[in-house]
Amino acid sequence: MSIDRLIQEFDLALRTVCASARSVRPLPGGELPEVALDAAEQRHVVGLMRVNHCGEVCAQALYQGQALTSRDPAVCEALRSAAHQETEHLAWTEQRIAELGGRKSLLNPLWYAGSLSLGLFAGALGDRWNLGFLAETERQVEAHLDSHLRSLPENDQRSRAIVDQMRLDEIEHAETAIRYGAAELPAIVRRAMKVMGGVMTGVAYRL
Ligand SMILES: [Fe+2]
Ligand SMILES: [Fe+2]
Questions:
Q1: Residue 8: pLDDT above 70?
Q2: Among 13, 28, 116, 187, which is disulfide-ready with 161 (CB 3.0 to 4.6 Å)?
Q3: How many angstroms is it from 19 CA to the middle of ligand 1?
Q4: How many angstroms separate the alpha carbon of residue 56 from the centre of ligand 1?
Q5: 38 C-alpha vs ligand 2 centroid, how far in Å?
Q6: What average pLDDT does the chain have?
Q7: Beta strands in the chain (DSSP E)
Q8: Ligand 1 mean position to 86 CA, how many Å?
Q9: Ligand lying nearest the CA atom of residue 79
Q10: Cα 103 to ligand 2 centroid, rounded to whole Å
């Protein structure tokens, strides 16, 4: 890898963890009114949005690791374009956390490093497994966003609109990975990923 590329990737990592992300698409539900939530509801919504933000930090790192190691230029391009949407998700969840007066996860640098290693590992296994890992991640994120839609207060339309749009994007990312030839991961790997995801969401909800 050239030194220029290395600097570019390092810059992306720093921006994800330290800077505010930008979105080309407008904030979903940005036109919807803010509603008054009681203190417990507000804490809960901030917790859920912090989990989502942390998940998007992980998505950035995963996609970065996978694009770095992918062999096929078409796959690389698909990964980059999905990563752009993940950056938008990062911006939307960050904005919602700020609107609710919350803060992002303190452990984001740690999650980033862990996810980057996972992405590099998946990438090293070859494109079929790389994409398989991606498709499964996106499917698990989709299930997890479904659970957030069940748990978010019914009247918090602003948060719901963001999660709704993210869910649609993640479904599309999984379909893209499958279209490019994703392998189906063994059940034990899928289970391990679920356990890891559970730990991450549990910690990020609080920290
Ligand atoms: Fe996302
Ligand atoms: Fe995604």
A1: no
A2: 28
A3: 17
A4: 5
A5: 31
A6: 87
A7: none
A8: 4
A9: 2
A10: 22
Q: How far apart are CA 106 and CA 206, in angstroms?
A: 10
Two tokens, residue 104: 């992002």
Long-range pairs, 83-87, Cβ under 8 A, ≥24: 83/59, 84/24, 85/169, 85/173, 86/56, 86/59, 86/60, 87/21, 87/22, 87/23, 87/60
Q: If DSSP states are collapsed to H, E and C, what string results for 104-151?
A: CCCCHHHHHHHHHHHHHHHHHCCHHHHHHHHHHHHHHHHHHHHHHHHH
- Read off the tokens for 10: 């390092």
Q: Is 67 exposed, middle or buried (0-12, 13-18, 19+ CB in 10 A)?
A: buried
Indicate left, alpha or beta for 180 from its phi (over 0: left) and psi (-120 to 50: alpha). alpha
Q: How many CA atoms lie within 13 A of 13 on its CB side?
A: 20
Which amino acid is located at 151 in the chain?
S
- Ligand 2 centre to CA of 95 (Å) is 18
Q: How far is the CA of 39 from the centre of ligand 2 (A)?
A: 31
State pLDDT tens for residues 20-35.
777 788 899 989 988 8
**Is 75 within 8 Å of 131 (Cβ atoms)?**
yes
| Cα of 40 from ligand 2 centre, angstroms | 29
Taking the CA of 90 as reference, the closest ligand is 1
pLDDT digits (tens, 9 = 90+) for 36-48: 889 999 999 999 9
